[in-house]
Specification:
Layout (H helix, E strand, L loop, with lengths): L15 H6 L3 H10 L3 E6 L5 E6 L2 E3 L2 E7 L3 H8 L2 E13 L4 E15 L3 H15 L4 H11 L3 E15 L1 H8 L1
Antiparallel strand pairs: 1-2, 1-5, 3-4, 4-7, 5-6, 6-7
Helix pairs in contact: 4-5
Length: 174
Amino acid sequence: MYNGSYFPGETHVPSNAQKKQLLSPEASEKILMIGLVGILGVTGDDGYPYTVPVNYAYETGKIYFHSARTGHKLDGINRNSKVSFCVIDKDEIVPEKLTSYYRSTVAFGHARVVTDDALKLHAMQLLARKYSPGFEAQASDEIRQSWSKFIVVEIIIDHLTGKEAIELVKRREA
């Protein structure tokens, strides 16, 4: 959770305005719970960052998503298990004020391919409940039929931080 910096190990001291914009750990976690798409950041080729949107499920300090068995994001995770995961809760462009009213959270953690079949199934059930409520039976059939064609990745969160536009802070305080 928030430890006084924006990133683990960072020595930057936020200004008072920046501190006001920081979300509580609970608010940051809520964004993870309700968000629909997260942006996964991994170490890409030649040290370049590589980001990709993924559907995900969140449960108790862990993020789960499924993937093909091979691909660029898995290459990045195998190269370096440290990842970031960003979810945007609000992004309202306010042209007349030359700004946007935003709220987002970023999780930093370690990713790994799930090798335990029970955990893999649990993660897929979480995803099915989130994205296909009422169609869990159909999802179970699909999971069973394609079991060997996909993997599940688990991100164990080490650090979570969230931030919102100062205008949203002022609205909430009013």
